[in-house]
Amino acid sequence: MSRLFCNGQPADATLLGAVLVNYGHFTSLQVRNGAVQGWSLHLRRLQQATHELFDTPLDVAQLCVWLEDALAQCGMRDASVRITVFSREFDFRQPLRVVPVDVLVGITAPVTMPTTARAVMSLRYQRELPHIKHVGTFPLFHHRRHAMREGFDDVVFVDEAGKVSEGSTWNLAFWDGAQVVWPQAAALRGVTEQLLMAGLDRLGQRQAQRALELTALTGFAGAVACNASGLWPLAQIDGVSFAQSDLLLQLLRRALGEAPWERLQIGS
């Protein structure tokens, strides 16, 4: 069961009005034994987006206290966490007015992604402000729903220039038999993606970042999706199949294992 805390207190119905405005941003993460892989990257994401959307700083020290308190109240050292930054005082009629921000912490049971290979379809679509993990998720879930109606498991987006950008809620990597290739287009550069790239460097594994059109996917033997919930293999994108996705999955798991677990504290 999910529990919600706003600014350190159990959330109540007074938040409903602010939630309906649908203006804010968030980050999702997995906590294990009170620690997170890439915690400093999550904090940086929250700080940067708060500044861009609200023109105000985020008190990350207070955020850490609220998060630790929320986990303690739930009696959980392992959990799935979503941290949303919004403002109960934001008025869409006066969006330039400087307002204090609120922090909503959602705590649920920890999750591990199943390793079943998934088939995804491509779709021409570009998220608004793709570099921000904002709360405007309606199109993502709608397009995923469309893909499932077409017999696929999920959707991967392609921009107006025909370049592969990101999945509905995930990044992806390809394997060409010698190196890992990360598609480059306007997209949310996920924390897990950043950790994987750093881990591959530590392992001495060749990797590259480059723009990829859909027609180029036939040159790859494997593909893997990743987000804060984990890694999973892709069996195919549209009609292109990937026979070595499990091999890439094993490599990326090793790379992720190189990422340290950071305590939920400032400067940890």
Explain what you see.
- This protein has 268 residues and is an alpha+beta fold.
- The chain contains 6 helices and 16 strands.
- The strands form 3 sheets. Strands 7, 8, 9, 10, 11, 12, 13, 14 and 15 form a 9-stranded mixed beta sheet that branches. It has a 5-stranded antiparallel beta sheet with strand order 2-1-6-5-3, covered by helices on one side.
- The radius of gyration is 19 Å and the shape is globular.
Proportion of residues in extended strands = 25-35%
Mean pLDDT: 95
Helix proportion range: 25-40%
Question: Count of helical segments?
Answer: 6
Q: Rg from C-alpha positions?
A: 19 Å
What's the SSE blueprint?
Elements: E1 3-6, E2 9-10, H1 16-21, E3 25-31, E4 35-37, H2 39-54, H3 60-74, E5 79-86, E6 102-108, E7 118-124, H4 138-149, E8 154-158, E9 164-167, E10 171-175, E11 180-183, H5 191-203, E12 207-210, E13 222-227, E14 230-237, E15 240-241, H6 245-256, E16 261-263
Parallel strand pairs: 7-8, 7-14, 11-12
Antiparallel strand pairs: 1-2, 1-6, 3-5, 4-16, 5-6, 8-9, 10-11, 10-13, 13-14, 14-15
Helix pairs in contact: 5-6
Keywords, please?
5-stranded antiparallel sheet; 16 strands; 6 helices; 268 residues
Quick structural overview:
The chain is α+β, with helices and mostly antiparallel strands.
